[in-house]
Amino acid sequence: MSMEKQREKTRKKLTSEGVDRLRDLPDDLLYYILSFLDTKYAVLTSALSKRWRFFWTSVPDLNFDRESFDKLTSFKNFVLTVLQRRQRDSKIRRFRLTSRNNVDRSFMNQVIDYALSHNTDHLFLLDPGCQCLSHPLVTSKRFYLSESFGVTALTTLHLEHCYFSDGSERTGCFDISAICPNLINLCLIHCAFGMFEVLKISGPQLVNLTLEYVCGNKLEISAPKLTFFKFIPYYSHLSVTHLPSLEHANVDIYRPYAYPRKIEVCYPNFFKLMQGIHNAQFITLNPEIIEVRLDILFNYLLIHLFALLFARFFH
């Protein structure tokens, strides 16, 4: 027997033994293993054996990454094909779609509608062209979010480069917790809600909250169970009213180059923010705040000290 044939025989034997070992593993463990893979590669496991042929159709964790495809059309076709061929009664635990390229509104409509209709627990969307989140779905690259449309099963929501709108002119208050009342983890990065006077976050179950460069008029936060709060402001007025369970707050003041040493220009309500998170066990500040505004902080403390003394002696 030639050396090449011997190698091929050995390879097939090892492959067969490897598949046999995997075949004995329970479904939950296999689902867990596949959850770390891009869905593109999870689908490729269908070639391993008969058991694996349709196993991917019930995997509860979906991860679609545009970077895994050479062409945008191939990426879109793959995503829609996977969604069409999945088992209809299969629950989605995590749905993640990442695209650095703008995708059309029809595609995003189908994807998000599918994720929400299957009671997705964790939803992660990154698409700079979909300035958006909404229902009934999209108009001119915006996915309108209506308070009449609830996603009660969602516990984790991560949005980047999204634009909040109800499809009309500027309105009053919008409460994201009215849409997703059971959110535990909420992350908004580079999102805008300029069409609303106030964006309110009042989730009764909210535990972790991250807001980075959220652009708008006013933010109101009231979350009784919140334990972690990360905030990088971008010209938004923040009102913190009720965070009794807060353990760790991380504040990083963004300063544009036009005002290299004026934090109050970037965020004039800094001390109001500090008052709102004063009961946190740990507060992390970026070094620039401490370095540049230490003089203001000292003066602020002196003012409050004199106010306390005045109240004690004259009342």
Helix content: 25-40%
The neighbouring-strand order within the major sheet is 1-2-3-6-8-10-12-14-15
The number of domains is 1
Mean pLDDT: 74
CA gyration radius, whole angstroms: 25 Å
What is the rounded distance between the termini?
Answer: 103 Å
Tell me the series of helices and strands, N- to C-terminal. HHHEHEHEEEEEHEEEEEEEHHEH
Category from helices, strands and their pairing: alpha/beta
Continuous helix count: 9
Q: Give the CA-based shape.
A: elongated
Transmembrane segments: 296-314
InterPro entries: F-box-like_dom_sf, F-box_AtFBL13-like, F-box_dom, F-box_SCFL_complex_component, LRR_dom_sf
Keywords: Membrane, Transmembrane, Transmembrane helix
Pfam family, one: F-box
Q: How would you explain this protein's 3D organization?
A:
InterPro entries: F-box-like_dom_sf, F-box_AtFBL13-like, F-box_dom, F-box_SCFL_complex_component, LRR_dom_sf. Keywords: Membrane, Transmembrane, Transmembrane helix. Pfam families: F-box. The structure is a single chain. It contains nine helices and 15 strands. It has 315 residues and is an alpha/beta fold. The chain has one domain. The chain has a nine-stranded parallel sheet with strand order 1-2-3-6-8-10-12-14-15. Helix 4 packs parallel to helix 5. The longest helix is centred in the C-terminal third of the chain and has 28 residues. The radius of gyration is 25 Å and the shape is elongated. About 9% of the residues have low confidence.
